[in-house]
Amino acid sequence: GSDFNLNSTAQLGSVLFGELGAPILKKTKKTGRASVDASVLESLSGKKSKAGRFCESLLHYRYIGKMQMTYLDPAIALRWEDERVHPTYRSALTVTGRLSSAGPNIQNIPKDRLIRSIFVPRPGWVLTESDMMSAEMRALASQAGEQKLKRIFASGGDIHTMTFRQVFGKSEDYEPTQDERRLAKTLNFGIVYGISAFGVAQRYDMDEDEAQTVINQYFQAFPMVARFMRGAVRFARKRGYVRNKFGRKRRLYPDILSGESVIRHRAERQAVNAPIQADAWDYNAVAIRRVGATLRSYGLQARMVMTVHDQIMVEHPPEETYIVHRIIDAAFASVEYPEQIPVESKTVSRWGETNESKLEKLLEELRV
DNA sequence: CTGAAGCGCCAC
DNA sequence: AAACGTGGCGCTTCAG
Ligand SMILES: Nc1nc2c(ncn2[C@H]2C[C@H](O)[C@@H](COP(=O)(O)OP(=O)(O)OP(=O)(O)O)O2)c(=O)[nH]1
Ligand SMILES: [Mn+2]
Is A3 contained in some domain? Predict the structure, then answer.
C-alpha cells in the first residue's frame, strides 16, 4: 500500500501491527515497542494471511541483507594487498579470556557454505580445521566431577546428539541433522548456564511445565552439575570472583551481592559460566602455542591462520596433511588438564566445504 | 557531520 | 515481564 523503510523497526512495526493487523507477540527491551525480531516473524509466518506471507518474505530479505551487508561487502572491502583479511584479535578484552576479533570479525562468519567458502587457502594448498569436541561440556564434566558425563565422553559419546534424542523422544540410533544437534547444543548450554523454564519454553515452543520437567530431569541425570552451579555461586558471593582451572579470574563483585535481583541473578549465571568458558579457551590457547611451535620445529610450510574460540585453522600444502593432523592431535592431547579434550579435524579446499570423496580425504586416509 | 542508543542477528 | 553465557557489527534514529 505505501512506501516505507523495511530496515526501520519502527516503520515496519506500524505497518505490520497497524495496517496488516498482526498481533503483538513481544515487546522490545528498552522502549517497550512491539518487537519485529525473527522469533515474532516466524510465529506470524505460519498463516495464509497477508501478514503471514509478508513475514516470510521479510525473513528472507533480512537474511540476504545480513549476508551481503555484514559479511560479503566487508570481506571484499577489508582485503589487504595479499587479498586476505587480517582481523585484529584482542587478547585482553573479554571477561572470560576468550579473544575478540574485529575488522572483520572472523569469529562470527555464517556457517552458510556460500559465505564460508569465500575464505580459501593460497592456490594449490588446503585448510585443516580442528574443533574441540563438546568443548565446554567436557570442561564442565571435569570441573563438576560429574562421572556420568565423564564416562559418556570417555566412551566416545556425543552429548549434544544424546540430549537431542533424549529430549525430543528419538531412538538411540537416530542421527540428528546439524540443525537438530545445534538445538540440543543450545539446550545443553542453556540449562547448565542457568536458563529458566520460561526460557526453555520460549525457545522450544513448549509448555512451561514441560520445560521445567526437562530441566529437572537434566539435573537428575547429572546431579553434580547442579552441585557445581551452587558451589560457583557460593564461592563468588564469599570471594567476589571466580577462577578457572588455569588460574584465570573473573571479578563479580559488587554485582554478585547487588540488591537488584536482575543484576544479582545475572552475576550468578556468570559465576557458573566464566570458569567453564575460560577453561575451554585456555585449553585451546595452550594447544595453539604448541601447534605453532611444533609446526616451526618440523620446518613445515604449514601456518596457523586463525582461531575461533575452540577451533584452529591451519593452511598448508596437501602433502603436509598427515603430519599436520598428527601434530594437532598431539598438541591437544598434551594439554595439562584432568581430562583430554580431543578435536575433530577436517581438511578442505575452501572453508565450510566438505572433503567427501575429494583429494583431501584421500590424503588423510593414505597418510601421505 | 559524529557518536550513542536501540534493535536485530551472525558466531562460538 | 524479563532468569543461558561470550562477543562484533549494520541500520535507523536522535542529540549535539
Ligand atoms: N552459553 C553458550 N555457550 C555456547 C553456545 N554455543 C556455543 N557455546 C560455547 C560452548 C561450546 O562448547 C563452545 C564451542 O562451540 P561449538 O559450536 O564448537 O560447540 P561444542 O564444542 O560444544 O560442540 P561440537 O562437538 O564442536 O559441535 O562455545 C551457546 O548457545 N550458549
Ligand atoms: Mn567445538
Answer: no
Helical (H) or strand (E) element with A48: none
Q: Is the CB of A319 under 7 A from strand B?
A: no
pLDDT digits (tens, 9 = 90+) for A237-272: 999 999 999 999 999 999 999 999 999 999 999 999
pLDDT reported for residue A49:
83
Strand B within 7 A of A309 CB: yes
Range of the domain at A250: 136-280
Neighbours of A150 (CB within 10 A): 17
Model ipTM value: 0.97
pLDDT higher than threshold 90 for residue A358 = no
A204 with A269, same domain: the answer is yes
Nucleotide nearest to A107 (CA to C1'): B11
Query: Could you tell which of A132, A149, A270 is best to mutate to test the pocket of ligand 1, judged by most ligand atoms within 8 Å of the CB?
Result: A132
* A83 occurs within a structural domain: no
Determine the pLDDT at residue A367.
67
Closest CA to ligand 1's atom 10: A136
Kindly give the interhelix angle for A359-366 and A321-334, rounded to the nearest 10 degrees: 60
Q: Hey, which of A130, A158, A185, A307 would you mutate to test ligand 1's pocket, going by the most ligand atoms within 8 Å of its Cβ?
A: A185
Please give the helix or strand (H or E) that residue A132 lies within, else none. strand A126-132
- The pTM is what? 0.96
**Cell triple for A58:** 521479510
- Cβ atoms A19, A12 nearer than 8 A: no
With a CB cutoff of 8 Å and minimum separation 6, the contacts of A232 are A242, A271, A272, A275
For residue A49, what are the CA distances in angstroms to A6, A19, A39, A101, A172? 19, 13, 18, 43, 40
Final residue before a domain boundary, out of A280, A311, A332: A280
Q: Strand B: which of residues 107-136 in chain A lie with Cβ below 7 A? A: 107-112, 131, 135
pLDDT by residue (tens digit) across A53-111? 888 999 999 999 999 999 999 999 999 999 999 999 999 999 999 999 999 999 999 99
